Amino acid sequence: MIQDISEKISWLKQNPRILKGIFRGIERETLRIQKNGRFSESSHPNSIGSALTHKWITTDFAENLLEFITPSSNNINYLLSFLKDIHCFVASKTQNERMWPFSIPYCYDDKTNIKIAQYGSSNLGRKKTTYRMGLKARYGDLKNTISGIHYNFSLPLNFWRHWKEKNKIDSISSGYLNLIRNYYRFGWIIPYLFGASPAITSHFLKNKQKIHKFKKNKDNIYYLPWSTALRLSDMGYTNTNIMDLNITFNNLNSYLKSLQYAMMTPSKKFIEIGLQDISGNVQQLNTNILQIENELYTQIRPKRTPYNGETLIEALKKRGIEYVEIRSLDINPFSSIGIDKSQILLLDLFLIWCTLIDSPKMNKSDFILTTRNWEKIIFEGRKPNQKIYINQKNETKTLVEIGETIFQDLNNIAYILDKIENNQLYQEVCEKIISFFKNPDLTYSAQCLKYFLEIGAKETGLNFSNKYHEEFINKSHKILHQTLLENEVIHSHEKQKIIEQEDKISFEDYIKNKNYPC
Fold it and tell me: Matching PANTHER family, A to Z (predicted)?
């Protein structure tokens, strides 16, 4: 099942410097909550800037769903300090509120009011809000408040230059698609290790047959004994099945054609919703399978930074894949900023490994097989003697066997990366995390569930959020000085006003003629 890559690792050992300069970026989502745990009902604070134009602080689906965005960097400590500084700044401006530390909003109840994110009166701002109205109409507002970490990763151009020559691949995009296919085959290892959503509220359990499979704790939170990341299940933040769209990541052109097809093809289900509500207000951008590219929710996506006025599809078509976006990370509740250094180090190793091993083209049956393995891990990953499918014949190996085989390779890659930096951080992470396979109680999901059963999900969330709030307001900035942050607030508001003043066409014409990002 897993290719022997000892020859490739030996080649890397001879050329270790080609891995120098991995770039990473982090996008962290978190709900603003009141001190009592209820959703904040206030609008996005003016004091932290314009959600439309701020470089690092915006909103996702809802007014109280913050999103923090770091620039890309090849320095992990810089990246984490940058993210911490954003948290500290926002905490200082919202001292009567807290940031929810879990992916799942366990603090939701029937009285909760979810206000869709607002971005001002410009055509761009209205389009962003209308897109989110479409998400609400299509999937419901609660599901869209589920939070996550997006981890952006790119290998050095020097690596790709040598890799293309050694492996006779035609482009960097082909190399990244190789990585992506292998992430589907083996990426379930990430929710097993780092999944932190083993429980869910009754509001996500619409299927009465499913609810009987769940146990319930004292504060009416539903859980499965061995689950890891219910956020990634059909109850969580998923929508369009990539298999139905025939998206297989075998080559860039076919991927882009499938994506364009989904954006141009009407959906019977979404036609029934209608473009307008009964009052005549626009409630979705269109009635197609996808309103825009970003509506395709997958575990990993190929990305390219678009130029101004350029869509993601256009950018990928013209210049190829620049990096991959990992979307299967739950918020880490044991870190004040939702992710920690050990996770980043492990992700680096695993994504390099996914690049090194061969990745045959995938058909629909192959994707069905990978989906079955992801579901096994999501719903019962910590089950004793859990088995994973290794081929279409339904042959299996145990999770422990596969995990330990992968980690043998990861440890060899760790040695190379540590040699570059003259330390042992990557090897230490391997040594620590490999123990999660034989002892599932060490996984994040097991630790979360223990807290939920002993203390309660909501109480645990409040304890963490209060602890982290105190940490934020008492910590000095390392990277982003206060003056820089305050100036960005002013600049973002000014920039929003300029965008609003420069509009020359009607909103209706704008959404017909331009497919600007949302």
Answer: GLUTAMATE--CYSTEINE LIGASE
State percent of the chain over pLDDT 90: 82
CA dist 287 and 125 (Å) reads 20
Q: According to CATH, what is the number of the domain 6-513?
A: 3.30.590.20
- In angstroms, the CA 231 to CA 377 distance is 12
Tell me what pLDDT residue 350 has: 98
Task: With H, G, I as helix, E, B as strand and everything else as coil, classify residue 405.
Answer: helix
Q: What angle do CA 15, 19, 22 make, to 5 degrees?
A: 170
**HSE, side-chain direction, 13 A CA sphere, residue 451:** 22
Euclidean distance between CA atoms 83 and 337, whole angstroms: 7
For residues 336 and 81, give the distance between their C-alpha atoms in angstroms, rounded to a whole number.
Answer: 12
Instruction: Give 73's contacts (C-beta < 8 A, 6+ positions apart).
Output: 23, 24, 25, 79, 82
pLDDT digits (tens, 9 = 90+) for 20-57: 999 999 999 999 999 999 999 999 999 999 999 999 99
Domain boundaries, given as residue ranges, for the chain: 6-513
Q: Which residues pair with 396 in a beta bridge?
A: 389
The pTM score is 0.96
HSE of 184, CA atoms in CB hemisphere, 13 A:
29
Q: Which two tokens stand for residue 240?
A: 């369009």
